């Protein structure tokens, strides 16, 4: 996860909201529609943990995953990843034990100061490094993380790119004033159970969920009054993950949250893409069941905040039935299958009455992966889009962004979804957006226009 506020982030959880009504299923029917998860997914083995390592180093490897270090510093920790911010691109640094280019000369005290205060032995860091969250890390976790980083392979070269901001933003000492305003003192709730206290630590500090999901104040610090209520992230939007019933994840069970954080998807509700896919792929998939359960337990007791980005209730009667539930995962066969289905769906689109109709556009550009019925091709590992919260939100911005700019899933098991911004007109993207929302989101109407698409693309390009 690239952790600075405005444009990159961690934890893009998509919320679920359902309501009763004449055309909306009641809660009893919803229980049968939304698949009940009877078993939690098995924990994925953690890389870099070895019997030959000390317990301290192995714990540090786990902390590195929990803190999602790889998302910004690369899998080899060599750095050079661009983190987009309102003041320009900030590039991550080499954090291998290289004495010339990395942190090989750091003492543990230096390391702790960097994590908690954003200060290296040479300069003040920008808060693209999420030290406002790491500020609350325990001594034990910092000690373990430091021990682990002494054991990673040395990359004895500088990052491919380094940070060069224009004057006066290149004066790093200016961040000292920002820190006084925005780096919080360690404040923990006193009304939590031990499990929820662990969840609070994971959510607020190690996983730094608020970095993406909490809106910013005028100084670009976190707005505590709108904690976890959703915030824009460049091309993405990190939605409300408070337990509000209408606009957050109030209808998600703790088991739902654990399943989503482990797998990056929740049947007919959410599918992780963009920064959230990175967060799942690099971090949350590796957490223990106890830690994921602790996060889920804490997220159920944070203050519920209602926003204007509510979920439109799903009309189950309007959702299609799946053609097949059979899925195979051979990627070689998948490529062949994809080529075949592209030819088939292209032919279907040509045979419609209007080759430029919303349906024909969907068949030509989307159905080869997501299926004619939206449930994904039966012989390929792509996302079902039926009922997803991202296509049922009152604000269609997230769906427009995905269609325009593309996305990839959490586990790299399928090719990245391409963006269609350069291949389709704004009106065509609007047509596909409306088609998907009505046919696979259960909405009775959708009025996305070409000007809506133009606005999203202009703001996020």
Characteristics:
461 residues, mainly alpha, Cytochrome Bc1 Complex, Chain D, domain 2, 2 domains, two-stranded antiparallel ribbon, 37% helix, 4% strand, globular, disordered N terminus
3D architecture notes:
This protein starts with 26 loop residues before the first helix and ends with a helix. The longest helix has 21 residues, at 331-351. The protein is mostly helical and 461 residues long. A hairpin with a 2-residue loop joins strand 3 (231-233) and strand 4 (236-238). It has a two-stranded antiparallel ribbon. The chain has a two-stranded antiparallel sheet with strand order 3-4. It is globular and about 65 Å long. The model is unreliable at 1-42 and 324-334 (pLDDT under 50). 37% of the residues lie in helices and 4% in strands. It folds into 2 domains: 1-307, no CATH class; 320-385 and 396-460, Cytochrome Bc1 Complex, Chain D, domain 2, CATH 1.10.760. The relative contact order is 0.13. Helix 2 crosses helix 6 (139-149).
Outline the fold blueprint:
Elements: H1 27-33, H2 55-66, H3 69-73, E1 82-85, E2 88-91, H4 108-117, H5 131-134, H6 139-149, H7 175-182, H8 194-206, H9 210-213, E3 231-233, E4 236-238, H10 254-263, E5 265-266, E6 270-271, H11 274-282, H12 289-299, H13 331-351, H14 358-365, H15 367-370, H16 397-405, H17 426-439, H18 450-460
Antiparallel strand pairs: 1-2, 3-4, 5-6
Helix pairs in contact: 2-6, 4-6, 8-12, 10-12, 13-14, 14-17, 16-17, 16-18, 17-18
| Low-pLDDT stretches | 1-42, 324-334
What is the radius of gyration?
23 Å
| Percent of sequence in beta strands | under 5%
One letter per element, helices H and strands E, the order comes to HHHEEHHHHHHEEHEEHHHHHHHH
């Amino acid at each position: 996860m690239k952790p600075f506020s405005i444009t990159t982030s961690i934890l893009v959880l998509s919320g679920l909201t359902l309501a009763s009504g004449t055309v909306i299923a009641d809660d009893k029917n919803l229980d049968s529609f939304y698949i009940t998860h009877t078993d939690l997914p098995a924990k994925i083995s953690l890389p870099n943990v070895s019997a030959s390592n000390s317990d301290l180093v192995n714990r540090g490897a786990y902390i590195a995953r929990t803190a999602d270090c790889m998302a910004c510093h690369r899998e080899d920790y060599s750095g050079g990843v661009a983190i987009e911010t309102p003041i320009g691109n900030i590039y991550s640094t080499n954090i291998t034990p290289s004495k010339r280019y990395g942190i090989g000369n750091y003492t543990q005290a230096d390391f702790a100061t960097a994590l908690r205060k954003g200060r290296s032995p040479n300069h003040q860091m920008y808060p693209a490094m999420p030290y406002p969250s790491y500020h609350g890390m325990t001594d034990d976790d910092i000690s373990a993380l430091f021990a682990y980083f002494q054991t990673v392979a040395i990359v004895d070269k500088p990052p491919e790119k380094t940070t060069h901001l224009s004057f006066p933003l290149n004066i790093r000492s200016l961040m000292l004033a920002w820190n006084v305003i925005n780096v919080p003192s360690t404040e923990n709730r006193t009304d939590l159970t031990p499990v929820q206290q662990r969840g609070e630590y994971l959510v607020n500090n190690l996983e730094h969920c608020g970095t993406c999901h909490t809106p910013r104040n005028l100084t670009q610090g976190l707005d505590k009054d709108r904690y976890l209520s959703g915030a824009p992230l460049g091309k993405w939007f990190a939605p409300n993950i408070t337990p509000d019933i209408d606009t957050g994840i109030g209808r998600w069970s703790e088991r739902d949250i654990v399943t989503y954080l482990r797998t990056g998807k929740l049947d007919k509700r959410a599918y992780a893409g963009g920064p959230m896919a990175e967060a799942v792929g690099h971090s949350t998939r590796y957490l223990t069941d106890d830690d994921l359960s602790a996060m889920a337990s804490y997220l159920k007791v944070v203050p519920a905040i209602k926003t204007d980005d509510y979920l439109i209730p799903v009309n189950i009667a309007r959702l299609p039935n799946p053609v097949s539930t059979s899925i195979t995962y051979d990627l070689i066969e998948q490529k062949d299958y994809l080529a075949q289905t592209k030819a088939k769906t292209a032919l279907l689109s040509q045979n419609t009455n209007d080759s430029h109709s919303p349906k024909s556009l969907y068949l030509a550009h989307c159905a080869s992966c997501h299926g004619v019925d939206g449930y994904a091709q039966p012989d390929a590992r792509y996302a079902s889009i039926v009922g997803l919260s991202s296509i049922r939100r009152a604000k269609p911005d997230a769906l427009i962004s995905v269609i325009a700019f593309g996305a990839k899933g959490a586990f790299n098991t399928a090719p990245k979804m391409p963006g269609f911004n350069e291949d389709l007109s704004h009106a065509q993207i609007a047509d596909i957006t409306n088609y998907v929302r009505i046919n696979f989101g259960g909405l009775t109407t959708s009025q996305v226009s070409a000007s809506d698409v133009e606005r999203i693309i202009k703001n996020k390009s």
